[in-house]
Amino acid sequence: MTRLGVFICHCGKNIARTVNIEALREKVSTLPDVVLAKDYLYLCSKPGQTMIADDIREHRLDGALVAACSPRLHGKTFAQTAQRAGLNPYLLDMANIREHCSWVHIDGAEGTEKAFSIIKGSLGRLRYAEPLEPFQSPVTKRVLVIGGGVAGIQAALDIANSGHEVYLVEKSPSLGGHMAQLGETFPTLDCSSCILTPRMVEVSQNEYVHLFSYAEATRVEGNIGQFQVTVRLRPRYVDETLCTGCGDCVPTCPVVVPNEFDQGLGARKAVYLPFPQAVPAVYTIDWDACLNTDKLIICENCYKSCEARAINFLMEPREITFEVGAIILSTGYELMPVAHIGEYGGDGYEDVIDGLQFERMLSASGPTGGVVRRPSDGRIPQNVVFVQCAGSRDPEHGVPYCSKVCCMYTAKQALLYKHAVPDGQAYVFYIDIRAAGKGHEEFVQKVMSEERILYLRGKVSKIFKSGDKIVVWGADTLSGRQVEIEADLVVLAMAVIPSSGSQKLARTLHIASDLGGFFSEAHPKLGPLESNTDGIFLAGAAQFAKDITDTVSQATGAAGKALSLLANDFIRLEPTVSGVEEGLCRGCGLCASICPFGAVTMSPSEKTGAMVAGINPVLCKGCGLCAAGCLSGAITLKGSSFRQIFAQLEEMV
Amino acid sequence: MPEGLRVGYFPGCTLKTDARDFESSALAVAGALGIEVAELGRWNCCGTVYSLDAVNLMPRLASVHNLIRAEEEGFSEIMTLCSMCYNTLKRTNNLFTSKNNGLAAINDFLCLKPGYSGRVKIYHFLEFLREKIKPEQVKDLVVRPLDSLAVAPYYGCLLLRPKEMAIDDPEKPEILTPFLSALGAKVIDFPLNNECCGAYQTAMHPEAVARRACRIISSAQSEGADMIAVSCPLCHYNLSALQGMVRSTHPGLKAMPIVYFTEIMAQAMELDYKTEVEAIPRDAEPGREAVK
Q1: Positive or negative CA dihedral for B105, B106, B110, B112?
Q2: Fewer CB within 10 A of the terminal residue: chain B, N end or C end?
């Protein structure tokens, strides 16, 4: 390059306060090949951009440097400016003299000197820049949604209603997730299943939705716009197409096991429908519980009782594959097992239960028909202690975060208990009350003031059994006293943790998760719906603990993100990715093992037949790890070649 | 007898004064099990339990001197009987082995050359038994099985907390169970077996400690225990010596014998050791009259 232009931004006073712009401009104008050095108050403004575009054309610049803020802020702005002026946008670079310089210096002389050094280095780098062209990749206009709780149902419906096909994959035999288990929802006390089940039916009947329950996504390959997905369908041992849902098989089944839908409080048979409103309304044989094995059929009771001939003991797992353009993850949450908290009895006491178990007790379809009863002896409890932050906000138990929903659901549960047992006493131990949603604080205040529920501010230190009572030791930090309550039932608002299997899924999809195991969002403020892998979006409690309102909002948002991707026939991808010089590659495969995105594959060269590295530009994020790792210097990160980086360093030091 | 089962022994002050029964019974049991217990030639106060403050090195210095002597005398493993000595020595030793190494600071402070290496392993006798002795070995030595005796192991705090020191699950300790079972006793698990006995409050607020002792004893009683087995001289003192005070305020509380776990082991094995207490009565009613 021989005709370079440098544009220096004042950024109001942001840069000009500690950088002497005039002195800097004069010094820069003497650098070799710089035919033009200008400054302006705000280069990102329309007149500023017009000035740059005009100068590029007028002075026939073959490289332009904008010395201003971070390229993360305005890189795209100035790339478009260059494009408009007919200069390849990759021949316009930015030198960051704001975040890296003026903001961190007080002394004007030092700031000016450093700004000059940064510009000099950037010019060195620009000198070896090459024009690059973005490339395109086609978009398959279908979406995969993993997880069939309320988040997945909402996302699938939004996408299907726009006329796009959706694959909805749910691990358990029925859609519904945890919301189907809940009694009533806060703060409006809507019946949870009454508002959910119409959606479950709607999604199952929508012609654009391919529903796979009792299934798991086992392999996902490809990239944004083109994911190849393999789903494994577990055998139900009941033919979905033949089962009429009559339930004649159930009474004949001799096997009784705990009912997971009732959180272990009730029982079910080995052949079962998880709950009456289950979708699909098809029975499933729990093969682990069933007396039969793959080799030996011991019991044929269900088979004999099924008039529709739907039972098939020989059913085998099936795999299906399909391609989608986007993926939405809505795999939800679980509660931390009570066993994790030894001081609360470690799951050793029947009458110490978790919040979801209490929900089942409150539910009209639950194991007690909606009557609150102690699991141990069936008595109606007169003293119930609710413990918030059981595991949450407690790094000792591995969960430093607030689980967000417990304050609200505990208030609701205490209220519903009081409605069920008006002469009973409810106690709630809390650290703080976090009721920051619409109508939430009002709800908690109502519970506290109108229902005569005793809120105690403090942690519970120990829970143990004494006779037929459960003794709760805690602190009341407002009165400064230790509290001892002899309760009939204790309800622990256990910490919300990611659902089991989400880590395995994160590995399958090459996406990141945070320290708590929740899927990481692309940006905590500006990218809360996206994972860090393009084309994979997040919805609901899989990203972090959240209530139904927030879950549905995020699900609709994620669906919107997926749909705006699907609105394009092709996606435009940045060309700043790695490339391999085949002749230099010795096929060691180090780059493939280094790449965190699975973008490098080893395959025989078309020319020589020897193993060489190949980079999928769609998967490549341009991190440069492969280039730095390559022992033969065969890999170059476009836009950041070694020549560019060394030239930049040489100019700066 | 297993080869080379030899361990250094740090007694601490109480074992030579108030808890002589504990020492003599433990040494007798160790001898019967073929463990060679070699008391350190020279030792001083363990330093006694200090605060959890991580910065101040001063409280650790007494322990360090003991650890250095143990190393000088050629012991790579030393054992204590007193829970307090165990906790104090172990926490000091952990300071040397943990990542934020206190070794250099202490060695510099004491002007030691060569300083302490941090390589001595600290055991509590119970932990030593668990790792080196099988319960069947204990069973083989039992002459007088404790078939009719319900024993509630009580662990207190110092063997279990802070959790880095714990010789067992701090919330559900069971380390004594296999050994008591080997004696033929019925082992009683009670929810307050890891509660604080009141510790040093016994000097200033004995009534507060008595209240705690009352809770602990009545909890064990309601689970059907005939006696409580302890491993700490201070727990022993607080639960037994204060029982009179407890019973004056809670007349309903029945007397509960408090014994060191080694005493019932020694007596089940009918070992000859110096004692003033008959932990296991020879009459048919086990436990009831045993307390002084």
Answers
A1: negative
A2: N
Across the range A538-547, mean pLDDT stands at 97
Kindly tell me the burial class for residue A630, based on how many C-beta atoms sit within 10 Å of its own C-beta (0-12, 13-18, 19 or more).
buried
Interface test with A, best of B161, B168, B172 (most A CBs within 10 A): B172
The confidence score (pLDDT) of residue B3 equals: 55
Distance CA A267, CA A264 (A): 7
Query: Is the pTM here over 0.90, yes or no?
Result: no
Q: How far is A346 from chain B (nearest CA, A)?
A: 9
Q: Do A466 and B191 touch (CB under 8 A)?
A: yes
Q: Which residues are CB-contacts of A192 (< 8 A; sequence separation ≥ 6)?
A: A179, A180, A181, A182, A183, A184, A185
pLDDT per position as a tens digit, A585-639? 999 999 999 998 889 999 999 888 899 999 998 888 899 999 999 999 999 999 9
Q: Which of A342, A464, A467 sits opposite B169 (nearest CB)?
A: A342
> Which of B171, B192, B219 lies at the smallest CB-CB distance from A346?
B171
**Token pair recorded at residue A468:** 């037929």
- What local confidence, expressed as pLDDT, does residue B277 receive? 62
Question: Which residue among A342, A346, A466 sits closest to B222, beta carbon to beta carbon?
Answer: A466
Which of B171, B188, B215 is the best mutation test for A, with the most CBs of A within 10 A?
A: B171
> ipTM of the assembly?
0.85
Residue with tokens 């450093």: A114
Instruction: Please judge whether A465 and B191 are an interchain contact, meaning their C-beta atoms are less than 8 angstroms apart.
Output: yes
Q: Is-contact A123 A4, C-beta < 8 A?
A: yes
Using one digit for the tens of pLDDT, what is the confidence trace for B111-167?
776 678 888 999 999 999 999 999 999 999 999 999 989 999 999 999 999 888 899
Residues contacting A153, CB < 8 A, separation 6+: A168, A175, A196, A199, A200, A203, A555
Angle, to 10 degrees, between the axis of helix A150-161 and the axis of helix A548-566? 30
